[in-house]
């Protein structure tokens, strides 16, 4: 593992480590996913595989790059946050519920951030081996092809991806927003792995995506990939993409979907 911090070097490391992690997730799915436990709520599951994959990635990064920090879903934040230092942002298995049920839509998501800016990211669908990558300013790529997002401009003709969090109160709110949204768009998809949703949007297989309540590990890599494919990636009312909202859409569609979500978010209650 090199010690460089250029986007290209960081991406090369991310791809190598994420591929190995995806292989572990896949193997454990075939052999034994181990213990299944719940975290914040009864719907929030975590398997022994989520933890094993995270440990493997943290060990690989630590061994090769002891000066870097790592933020992972299962074990939290570790290491430096010094100015100019690299922080890796990891979702060891995004789509754990799909993983549990054997649905082929779960992924390893790994991004490299410096001073709050994501410079490189990779998402590997561990079930299929499909890989999406991006570096800041260097475009988004899959299987050697540069990606471009949808050019849809009409909300009524847009296919929108979304997701639901694990907190029942938030879900109830999301359900109210959803009930109204489906009357205004072509259709809605909920595939169950946010990082992969963002990659699908990057290649035009979803016209737009939004979700409230995501964590950095869900959208750090996929957000860069979608942005590098031409999407506007942001929150509501000028905020950056974050736990309040991750919204992405092609430039012409963004304001229309944004304003609708602001309206529905307010009408949907707490
Ligand atoms: C979840 C998935 C899901 C999204 C949830 C996430 P996890 O991540 O990305 O699609 O709707 O908000 O928490 O728990 O499977 O890594
Ligand atoms: Ca989880
Ligand atoms: Ca996740
Ligand atoms: Ca996860």
UniProtKB/TrEMBL annotation:
SUPFAM superfamilies: Carbohydrate phosphatase. It is an enzyme of class 3 (hydrolase). Gene3D superfamilies: 3.40.190.80, Fructose-1,6-Bisphosphatase, subunit A, domain 1. Pfam families: Inositol_P. The keyword Magnesium applies. PANTHER family: INOSITOL MONOPHOSPHATASE, INOSITOL-1-MONOPHOSPHATASE-RELATED. This is Inositol-1-monophosphatase. The gene is suhB_1. Its cofactor is Mg(2+). Its EC number is 3.1.3.25.
């Amino acid at each position: 593992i090199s010690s460089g911090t250029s986007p290209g070097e960081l991406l090369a490391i991310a791809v190598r480590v994420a591929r190995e992690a995806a292989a572990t997730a896949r193997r454990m799915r075939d052999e034994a996913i181990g213990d299944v436990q719940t975290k914040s709520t009864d719907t929030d599951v975590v398997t022994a595989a989520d933890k094993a994959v995270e440990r493997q990635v943290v060990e690989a990064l630590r061994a090769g790059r002891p000066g870097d920090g790592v933020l992972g879903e299962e074990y939290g934040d570790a290491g430096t946050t010094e100015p100019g230092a690299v922080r890796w942002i990891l979702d060891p298995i995004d789509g754990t519920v799909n993983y549990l049920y054997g649905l082929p839509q779960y992924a390893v998501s790994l991004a490299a951030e410096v001073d709050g800016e994501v410079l490189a990211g990779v998402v590997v669908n561990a079930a299929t081996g499909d890989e999406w990558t991006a570096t800041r300013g260097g475009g988004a790529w899959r299987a050697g092809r540069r990606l471009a997002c949808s050019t849809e401009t009409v909300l009524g003709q847009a296919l929108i991806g979304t997701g639901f969090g694990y907190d029942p109160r938030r879900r109830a709110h999301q359900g109210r927003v959803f009930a109204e949204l489906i009357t205004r768009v072509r259709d809605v998809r909920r595939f169950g792995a946010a990082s992969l949703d963002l990659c699908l949007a990057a290649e035009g297989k979803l016209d737009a995506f939004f979700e409230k309540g995501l964590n950095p590990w869900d959208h750090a890599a996929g957000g860069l990939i979608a942005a590098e494919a031409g999407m506007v990636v942001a929150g509501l009312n000028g905020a950056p993409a974050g736990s309040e909202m991750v919204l992405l859409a092609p430039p012409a569609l963004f304001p229309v979907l944004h304003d609708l979500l602001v309206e529905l978010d307010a009408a949907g209650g707490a």
